[in-house]
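Protein modeling request. Please complete all fields; requests missing the sequence field cannot be processed.
Requester role: graduate student
Desired output: 3D structure, token encoding
Chains: 1
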Amino acid sequence: MAKTRLAIKDVIIDCEDPERLAAFWAALLDRPIAGRTGPYVWLTRGGGPGLGFQKVAEPKAGKNRVHFDVASPDPASEQARIEALGGRRLDRYAPGGFLVMADPEGNEFCVIPPEPFEVDDDGQADYLR
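Delivered output (129 residues):
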């Protein structure tokens, strides 16, 4: 039997309002909305996996088990832009040294520098210090 190689093609975010969430992520990532199909709104494909937003009936509950890390040369300055787009900082993660934000439906994501940074044995990051 021939071995198949799998690759991540798309990442789908379940959400109550795919139009609103797609608009937030489109502005944040500078990837315009590419189209709509059924309950999905898709962003223009970038260099990595596609990003889609699927309408679901139930709201987000609890902490994400998977989250995005988005890179910026100046993570601290990105906070104001993210908040202006409708996101918010999640201060409960601040002691870990990471800039953890949430999109308008509460999905967590980290803003990190593009270059390597130090994380100690306790998982504490140093890039905001």
